[in-house]
Amino acid sequence: QVQLVESGGGLVQAGGSVRLSCAASGPTVSLYSISWFRQAPGKEREFVATSTRGVGVKYYADAVKGRFIISRDNAKNTVDLQMNSLKPEDTAVYYCSATGQYYTRSSTDMEYWGKGTLVTVSS
Predict the structure, then answer these.
(1) Per-residue confidence in pLDDT tens, the chain, 123 aa
(2) φ, ψ at 88 (rounded to 5°)
(3) How far is Cα 26 from Cα 43, in angstroms, rounded to an integer?
(4) On the CB side of 103, how many CA atoms lie within 13 Å of its CA?
């Protein structure tokens, strides 16, 4: 069993930055790939970034590549998402998730979810 708790959301102006953090707990967190997804109002949940289990290879959605950075601290069991050059279209609830699969972008493959944190980007 893995528990995930997100923090760090809020209101930010376009062009600004915000850092989200996902605190993971459980006996086998290091065996899971940890991802961030987001869901905007009226839209489906979409993949943002992942840090794989093991060496922590990073993958990003095209929409955030070059602006967002995912980082993982296995000693602290945290996975952060640094979000830079934010745009109004980045407004969404951001979710942390975990899967035993090495790499997948599908939300249906995720085994555990946090409750999410809202990021609102004003224009």
Answers:
(1) 899 999 999 999 999 999 999 999 987 788 999 999 999 999 999 999 999 998 899 999 999 999 999 999 988 999 999 999 999 999 999 999 999 999 999 999 999 999 999 999 999
(2) -55, -30
(3) 31
(4) 12
* Dihedral sign for Cα atoms in the order 96, 98, 102, 104: negative
CB 75 within 8 A of CB 87: no
**89, 68, 57: which is closest to 8 by C-alpha?**
68
- Comparing CA positions, the residue from 107, 100, 89, 90 lying closest to residue 20 is 90
Give CA angle at 78 (6, 60), nearest 5°. 80
Select from 99, 88, 19 the least CA-distant residue to 53: 99
Residues 6+ positions from 11 with CB-CB distance below 8 Å: 120, 122
Contact 51, 82 (CB under 8 A): no
